[in-house]
Amino acid sequence: MAKILVVDDDPDFVEITRLILESNNYEVISAHDSADALDKMHQEKPDLVLLDIMMTQILDGLTVPREMLTDPDLERIPIIVVSSITSSPHIGEFPTDEYLAVDDWISKPVQPGILLEKVKRYLKRFQREKNAGQFVSESM
User: Fold this and answer.
1) Which stretch of DSSP H or E encloses residue 114?
2) pTM, whole model, 2 decimals?
3) Burial of 1 by CB count in 10 Å (0-12 exposed, 13-18 middle, 19+ buried)?
């Protein structure tokens, strides 16, 4: 069973997302901010991260992919951003001149079918790469 980390400070969004994912046989863990997310990643070793950008601080979620890139145990985990920043007054604060190491983006509100399709796609790719030995696992 694939393990998915949902990173969002909105408990209602986390619970709805949990219900959608668990009803499709995914294990779900959650974190409420970037620091909590990075701790959970080291403890739980998720197969995929669903990440909000605007949490406790406006661009709190940007910390997660930056930190993951510097950690060999985390750098290959797929990240799907799930955020409403594109329709918020804070869009001007989003850095457009910086590389953001994410695999995909879903705007809130999320359509369950789109969420599940993207989750399935990136989990499949992650498993293929892992099985092909294209990256070193944390046990090596």
Assistant:
1) helix 112-132
2) 0.83
3) exposed
